[in-house]
Design a protein that fits this description.
By secondary structure, the chain is α/β, with parallel strands linked by helices. The protein folds into two domains: 279 residues, Aldehyde Dehydrogenase, Chain A, domain 1 (3-Layer(aba) Sandwich), CATH 3.40.605; 180 residues, Aldehyde Dehydrogenase, Chain A, domain 2. Helix content is 38%, strand content 21%. The protein is built from 15 helices and 24 strands. Strands 16-17-18-14-13-20-21 form a seven-stranded mixed sheet, sandwiched between helices. The chain has a six-stranded mixed sheet with strand order 10-9-8-11-12-23, with helices on both faces. A three-stranded antiparallel sheet has the order 6-7-24, with no helix packed on it. The protein is globular. The chain starts with a strand and ends in a 7-residue tail after the last strand. It binds adenosine-5'-diphosphate (ADP). Adenosine-5'-diphosphate (ADP) binds next to helix 7 and helix 8. The site of adenosine-5'-diphosphate has 17 residues, from helix 7 and helix 8.
Length: 499
């Protein structure tokens, strides 16, 4: 299964140029002078020491963002001008695709080939999408019932705090930053402590592109300190968070207990993939494999509950076991590899504990189940059969390469089982029958339904959760609404025949 799960230091190490906080257009040390280590998940070795921001640093960054919002030109310039600067940032990012992808591979164990072909080009395109939207943010003309006229203004919400996770460092950075920039907001980004490097790199690109000082600040540091200081800050108008459901709850609490700031949450998932008897089995096997093991299972929308109808179940089990064994685990810088290491020791141990729990709960280990190699945080693609709905491996978000396979008989049973989760991020449906596809799509309580495909993200497709997967959309024109507020303006019409 594994080609090289022992570090792979032979592959190129990118140069680390930026390790300080980015506040008001400058790289600065943290007020305390403290730093923290960011580590290479291939080996567990330290890559760099990065400035450890805390409350005082968040205060400085928020002050810079507040000043840029209250007195600076970014919210006041035309949307067209903002769009031009964002286009320039997209061009600069495009010129540095390789370097940024390398930082994410090194910091997060992500496949370099995909970073270069998908993640970073995807971020470039998303920036361009929102750059194009920046001058198309309109209010409405209101038809009042009396002798008044009115209109609405869509105004930037103010200073935004973005708290982002480690599984897609650059993608998440631009998911949040791009629409917020387009609307004229100013912001403080708190990247995940596991993957701080690419955010710092992108911040200085923004300055080069012409984003004014103070508009985009990056404070690296830990969640319980820097993250908590941002979500409870009295001068932050909105928090946009992506991460675990547990931390999402803390963020919402902090917002409620401070200044009632707006909150949007993109949280965990335990997404089902429902495969009907009429599906092409080989395609279903490929999609299920991708749905669970892609990005080593570190994706909130991973499809890890695979429901297969009884007519094709046995054939599916045989084929998915073979496919899992041919999935190549190893160094993420190696183009042959399909799965790199889990992001850090904590996640690695969490996933292995869930695999143990699955065995203790009585599920059958079909394939995988162990660490891979002696060094770093590699885990074999793992599949359990005989999984029961109530088992924790079927209910909890594992965030690793672990699939739970389950059988169903009828469409009603499939819908009921798919909805038997506290989460509601996404679902996959595989069938050739349009009626089945439509019925299941409408019956599942989840924010995205992929029919005969999976992970089919696109700039224009809103993405976000139902239920305990959160609320508020990233991507698409809906994401702009998270960073806007609506003001109503009403004036009397003097001289109107009705006065
Ligand atoms: P995961 O469990 O997948 O590591 P988390 O939800 O813990 O994801 O982390 C997502 C982001 O939330 C990270 O940037 C992290 O630093 C931040 N974070 C963690 N704890 C808190 C907290 N108490 N308040 C605000 N942000 C936090």
């Amino acid at each position: 299964m594994a080609v090289d799960c022992n570090g792979g230091e032979s592959f190129k190490m990118p140069e680390i140029k930026f390790t300080k906080l980015f506040i008001n257009g400058q790289f600065v040390d943290s007020v305390s002078g403290k730093t923290f280590e960011t580590r290479d998940p291939r080996t567990g070795d330290v890559i760099a020491n990065v400035a450890e921001g805390d409350k005082e640093d968040i205060d400085l960054a928020v002050r810079a963002a507040r000043n840029a919002f209250d007195h600076g030109k970014w919210p006041r310039m035309s949307g067209f001008e903002r769009g031009r600067i964002m286009m320039k940032l997209a061009d600069l990012l495009e010129q540095h695709i390789e370097e940024v992808a390398e930082l994410d591979s090194l910091d997060g164990g992500k496949l370099l080939t995909l970073g270069k072909a998908m993640d970073i080009p995807g971020a470039v395109n998303l920036l361009r999408y929102y750059a194009g939207a920046a001058d198309k943010i309109h209010g409405e003309t209101l038809k009042l019932s009396r002798e008044y006229q009115g209109y609405t203004l869509k105004e930037p919400i103010g200073v935004v705090g973005h708290i982002i996770p480690w599984n897609y460092p650059t993608t998440m950075f631009f998911f949040k930053v791009s629409p917020a920039l387009a609307t004229g907001c100013t912001m403080v980004v708190k990247p995940a402590e596991q993957t701080p490097l690419s955010a710092l790199f992108c911040a200085q690109l923004a300055k080069k592109a012409g984003v004014p000082d103070g508009v985009l600040n990056v404070v690296t540091g830990f969640g319980a300190t820097a993250g908590a200081a941002l979500s409870s800050h009295m001068d932050v108008d909105k928090i946009s968070f992506t991460g675990s459901t547990e931390v999402g709850r803390l963020v919402m609490e902090a917002a409620a207990k401070s200044n009632l700031k707006h909150v949007s949450l993109e949280l965990g998932g335990k997404s089902p993939v429902i495969i009907f008897d009429d599906a092409d089995v080989d395609m279903a096997v490929d999609l299920a494999r991708i749905a669970t093991f892609f990005n080593k299972g570190e994706i909130c929308v991973s499809g890890t509950r695979i429901y297969v109808q009884e007519g094709i179940y046995d054939e599916f089990v045989k084929k998915i076991a073979e496919k899992a064994k041919s999935w190549v685990v190893g160094d993420p810088f190696d183009p042959k590899v399909q799965q790199g290491p889990q992001v850090d020791k904590v996640q690695f141990e969490k996933v292995l504990n869930y695999i143990d729990l699955g065995k203790r709960e009585g599920a059958t280990l079909l394939t995988g189940g162990k660490r891979c190699g002696e060094k770093g945080y590699y885990i074999e693609p793992t599949i359990f059969t005989d999984v029961k709905e109530e088992m924790r491996i079927a209910q909890d978000e594992i965030f690793g390469p672990v699939m739970s396979l389950m059988k169903f008989k009828t469409i009603e049973e499939a819908i009921e089982k798919a909805n038997n989760t506290r989460y509601g991020l996404a679902a996959g449906v595989l069938t050739k029958d349009i009626n089945t596809a439509n019925r299941v799509s409408r019956s599942i309580r989840a924010g995205t339904i992929w029919i005969n495909c999976y992970f089919a993200f696109d700039n224009d497709v809103p993405f976000g959760g139902y239920k305990m997967s959160g609320f508020g959309k990233d991507m698409g024109m809906h994401a702009l609404d998270k960073y806007l507020q609506v003001k109503s303006v009403v004036t009397p019409i003097y001289g109107s025949p009705w006065l």
